[in-house]
């Protein structure tokens, strides 16, 4: 192909064992800039572990993870987050006793009032940048039709709204890439469709994403390329129609 | 009577300082510090030994590092010593352990600290503790004992206001918001780029400093300090104050201090001695435990729940940039 899309993330031969089980066993794949890379596979294939390794929550036993040309293998999660790779969680991970607006504001990087000295210098010091952030957060809320929930405690949101909150929060962190771990889990079909459209819009704006998802029809609509994992390894890589036809993929899904 | 009231006020202010420090750690940042009283004790011991003067062979009490530092220095030294200990303990226990294990480590630390202070007799005079600690500026001021008491109450009140403004500066800032986020979901906070270990350590040291200051101010007032003054259940009195008042809310923490360590424990001292000597005191601990349980069950957010951050209203939808002045969203609980 003439214009090969640029790699934003490159995972090479990554392994991680827990006790005697190799959860991820030599996985290799690339994620492309401005694409939603799908990560699918049967339960226990090692998808979540791989996401954990990429996001820095789990340290790999071997292999390398290169993000934006920088080796990030084994960096702690917050360092990877600061580099612009933000992950969302399979189970809702909202800040329960913060309002929706505050949940978004927390995510903003480099806040003036976030150091001890900055905080003690008072609102006069950090107020202006805080006001600017509030504006940004409100525009995000408007975009995701969550304006009315601005002052609601995150704990009181519905399951689907919590998923939306996580996506909004990730966006507030100025991400270069977002790792979505089952963003549609427990979301009603209508809202799920809505979230799909949001994700496609974000992709069209140039945001790179990796998405773990079980619902293959969703993957087909959103993801290209698709990575198929089974037993800790990547067994196929390509467009959904490509990989869906392959023998080993069918075997993995049928045999598990 | 004036003596009693001024003493009670001094206790109240000192306890408020201590509770505010623990509220920062526990209420805001979610660090379960069951060893909080140890940091108060370290502040108290430090202030004591740097104001008692050098130890000498015939002395009735023995301690390390005797000195006679002038007035505000012992308090700062107390805070600093507690902060240093916080840093050491924090680096060891807060980095890798999950919060429930951290809590256990803290509880054990509290027990060990009491044993060390009691048995290493050369350190701070063992179980007998230190006494005759000089009151700051007592000779220089030349006040009557009662006037001195009131002056001391004023001094404690001043320090309390300073501590309050300091912790309030943290809790109402973006830093406080990040700490609350970390408390609510540590993994998510770190995925968003927040260095949770560094944040926890920072809060632990700042809270430890406040604990040390409150211990120092306390020991300079009562002039004596021994292992019996800081047994581990004392931490739970502080925790009860926070849970009753409202974790994460500094105003609530102050009200909780007024109600639990001062009001409740002071009031029960006037109950007639029943059954046997010490029965009332034993029951006090039972009641503190019951109080914690009852609040956790029926009013887990305390009397004054934590207030979420408030922001300016959205501009009116006229397209202009006119802003509506900030209006309290929440009911007028005593915040700001």
Would you write up a description of this structure?
- The complex is a heterodimer of chains A (256) and B (336).
- By secondary structure, chain A is of the alpha/beta class.
- Chain A has ten helices and ten strands.
- Chain A has helices spanning 47-55, 77-82, 100-107, 116-121, 123-143, 159-172, 189-204, 216-222, 240-244, 247-255; strands at 7-18, 21-32, 36-40, 62-67, 70-71, 85-87, 177-181, 208-212, 226-230, 233-238.
- Chain A has a six-stranded mixed β-sheet with strand order 6-7-8-3-9-10, with helices on both faces. Chain A has a four-stranded antiparallel β-sheet with strand order 2-1-4-5, covered by helices on one side.
- In chain A, helix 3 (100-107) runs parallel beside helix 6.
- The longest helix of chain A is centred in the middle third of the chain and has 21 residues, at 123-143.
- Chain A is globular and about 60 Å long.
- The two termini of chain A are 34 Å apart.
- Chain B is mainly alpha-helical.
- Chain B has a domain at 2-231.
- Chain B contains 13 helices and no strands.
- Chain B has helices at residues 2-28, 36-49, 72-93, 99-119, 121-124, 138-141, 145-171, 174-184, 186-191, 196-222, 233-245, 250-267, 279-298.
- In chain B, helix 1 (2-28) packs across helix 12 (250-267) and helix 11 packs parallel to helix 13 (279-298).
- Chain B is globular.
